[in-house]
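Quick question, first post here. What does this chain look like in 3D?
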Amino acid sequence: MHIPDGLIITNEPLSLFGSVGMWIISLAFLYWSWKKVKLTYSQSITALLGISSAFVFAAQMINFPVIFGTSGHLVGGTFLAMLLGPYAAILGMTIVLGMQAVIFADGGILAFGANVFTMAIIGGMSFFLIKLIMRKSRSKSRLATGVFLSSWISVVLGAITAGVIISPAFTGGMMITVPSMFIYYAIIGIGEGAITTILVSSIQKIQPKVIGGLTLLMERSI
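> Answer (accepted):
Ran it through. Tokens below.
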């Protein structure tokens, strides 16, 4: 889902506006998330952010087959949201995307704002969908359902958003990019949901205290 600079910076004036606009929107979310993190956590979570981000970074290297010889990999936004909470997850995913863009050129620098929005912000905010599904329940089956659905929706919504952003680069615009991204990532999202659900359920059984999002799910306001 990483958007390269070549797809967001075209000869179309709208594409440049979109690049700058996504940077502004993403920076606003990052600032808001940082402020919320400082209010939510009583002590520094720098170490936890680093460790969890490194885990997602490594997990994204593992690909799973989809169809027609294509493959997908874990995005990790919803997983980090369950591990750290929504705001810290946004920061953690941004760290991952930053390393990928700078070290591996996976996603462009000019397109970084767009990539942060489609994966870090949408992924982190999927936490609130889980919270809506849980409704104060402590049922493990409801949690698993919430994690799976939220993971799938976050991937598909991110893909659709990416399709809108890159549409100026293609003849036919959104009529081509949005359906294509939806179909492909609707399938990848199933793998994302399954992997995320397995990870969260396994950690919940072995070491539930590690999943900080479980506590936040029960709070009235976060």
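The radius of gyration is 17 Å.
The chain has ten helices and two strands.
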